[in-house]
Design brief:
hpI Integrase, Chain A, 58% helix, 300 residues, three-stranded antiparallel beta sheet, mainly alpha, 12 helices
């Protein structure tokens, strides 16, 4: 089915807006674009400004008949809603037909996390006898002590380091800048990587916008390589959990909350725009408290 030409151009403008003004990643832009394009294909020759709430409800019924999960349907609605919000701000449409749309109720799932012993088991079983192994040890140490996202870590450049103050500048979602802190032990590991190990992987200049973590060709280390390295060590110790780099972030936040850290401070360290995203870690800690109580108290 053909897509209305004007609508197609609006989508291109929306993609440019997400890239240039919202600073979204290419992965996120592709996801938004794909969701909106599916909607435009369904609409066919109908222009986006001719679609009202009733017509959008028809689309919701259409996708509800397909084998999409609730999460996927909710994501599609969010993408189209953002598209129409853009069109409204550009004065292309008079109102947003998705405003009254209700997506499926999603179950609130608590994030998985690792215990301190499990993390130490992973870290101590990374073979640091090779330069790449030592690099990986530093990477997972950083993920654990800072709560960085994997994309934030792989995106680090030398100019982002302020090791005299034990600080690292991080660019999160939407290129939002924040500062994360590292303890002295981690700083020593990182300095040794920079001064003695990095050039054994590939000789590069340790300054400016040059990437901090590199592969054997001197290029920026990719997220997939980091995931693969983590899977290798987790498989070797036969840890009976699904472990991803992001679980280090959940573990970092959970541990801070358990130790009594202020929620606003945790929000700042994680780079959450809304504190509601941070509050889930208080629920994680409460669930853990209940588990410990039920297993330890004789009356439980």
């Amino acid at each position: 089915m053909a897509v209305n030409n004007k609508s197609k151009n609006y989508l291109k403008n929306f993609e440019s807006y997400l890239k240039l003004e919202k600073n979204f990643s290419s992965h996120t832009i592709r996801a938004y674009s794909a969701d909106v394009l599916c909607f435009l294909i369904w609409a066919g020759e109908v222009n986006v400004n001719e679609i009202d709430a009733k017509k959008f409800s028809e689309y919701l019924y259409f996708i509800s008949q397909m084998n999409y999960t609730k999460t996927t349907i909710a994501r599609k609605i969010a993408s189209i809603r953002a598209f129409y919000r853009f069109l409204y701000n550009m004065e292309i449409v008079d109102y947003n037909p998705t405003d009254t749309a209700k997506g499926p109720k999603l179950p609130k799932s608590l994030p998985d996390f690792l215990s301190e012993d499990e993390i130490e088991n992973i870290l101590t079983n990374i073979k640091i006898s090779s330069p790449a192994g030592y690099r990986n040890r530093v990477i997972f140490e950083l993920l654990w002590v800072t709560g960085m996202r994997i994309s934030e870590l792989s995106g680090l450049n030398y100019e982002d380091l302020n090791l005299e103050q034990n600080e690292i500048r991080v660019f999160g979602k939407g290129a939002k800048e924040r500062i994360v802190l590292i303890p002295n032990k981690t700083k020593e590991l990182l300095l040794n990587y920079i001064e003695n190990v990095s050039n054994l992987i590939h000789k590069t200049e340790h300054n400016g916008k040059n990437p901090l973590f590199i592969n054997n060709n001197g290029y920026r280390l990719q997220n997939q390589t980091i995931r693969k390295a983590l899977k290798t060590v987790v498989d070797s110790i036969e840890l009976n959990k699904h472990v991803t780099p992001h679980i280090f972030r959940h573990s970092f936040a959970t541990r801070l909350i358990e130790k009594g850290a202020d929620l606003r401070i945790v929000q700042e360290l994680l780079g959450h725009q809304s504190i509601s995203n941070t509050q889930i870690y208080t629920h994680v800690s409460m669930e853990r408290l209940k588990t410990v109580y039920e297993s330890a108290h004789p009356r439980a």
